[in-house]
Amino acid sequence: MKIGVVKEIKNHEYRVALTPAGADELVRGGHEVLVQASAGEGSGLADASYEAAGARIVSDAGGVFGEAEMILKVKEPLEAEWALMRKGQVMFTYLHLAADRKLTDAVVATSSHAFAYETLEVDRKLPLLEPMSEVAGRLSIQAGAKYLERPAGGTGILLGGVPGVAPAHVLVLGGGVVGTNAARMAAGLGANVSILDISLDRMQYLDEILPPNCTTLYNTRMTLHEELAKADLVVGAVLIPGAAAPKLVSREDLATMKPGSVICDVAVDQGGCVETCKPTTHEEPTFVVDGVVHYCVANMPGAVPRTSTFALTNATLPWVRRLADLGPARAIHQSPPLAKAANAIAGRLTCQAVAEAFDMNFHPPEEAAAAID
Predict the structure, then answer these.
(1) What is the pLDDT of residues 85-112, one digit of tens each?
(2) Which among 200, 256, 201, 206 has a CA at the least distance from the CA of 231?
(3) Which fold has domain 2-126+305-369?
(4) Where in the sequence numbering do the catalytic residues fall?
């Protein structure tokens, strides 16, 4: 199969979907790899490295889209890329369709076969989402610490405090991969951390692995309000695979928070778990609502592309190979994880969570796969 890697065009997105080592593995597996010129530049990966791995450099995105049977990306296709997608072409990327009806309609209308990293599931885990969740969870604390500084509009508190001065209080909403990594980073800096979740099993696990300055709490409205009033930094880390994130924090809740406190909503690419959240960019990362600083960058791992690109390829490469080896129809029938990853196949919406989010017709992936020529 001809596999194309294009340069990301989202604002300040420096990741690339494949490393030269990944390209080498695909070429050795009998596939042809096309890479858009300078696609890896933001991650410190030169075109010459891809050529040495056996890939062919193509001058522009149109050339890659026009020739490749499968497109590998990092972020969802933007409007400029919709016209380049074509019927029968496979796309494998982070789609996050449940956050954007217009994108969903556009992807379905192309009649391409769109597979999403974030809904590929193995043993109730999301192995292609986990590496970026790890990065985003850790970055949320770095960003929160920065925007708590007074020149950035924050309260002026140091996360870890100093001897004789209390540390900051960090509230993490959700104890999944993002939340665990955020809690670990915040605790490592010396902050007092509360993690709210509704799974007793997960909280028991977190209680065993996290340091003593992390406290797990069962999430109720009363507990949430009490914690918001104490919080200097709130990290939104709630995930429902493939679906829009639930709104846990309302506009009215902001009135209970300290002026200059910070919210970092990592769930923004699934619509956010804070009502006042709206996507921002690395260029303009924050805005203020009712005295509370909001950091809602929708591609946080793009800020550390060197780490993120290698972590992403490590996770996705085996599944890219399998999808390329089998083709979309056989992959859906023979690989349950890839069937879960199928979001839009042959002009049909095949992700139930997205269909429910927008009240659209859902088609089982196996049914849609039967329509592939």
Answers:
(1) 999 999 999 999 988 999 999 999 999 9
(2) 256
(3) Rossmann fold (3.40.50)
(4) 96, 269
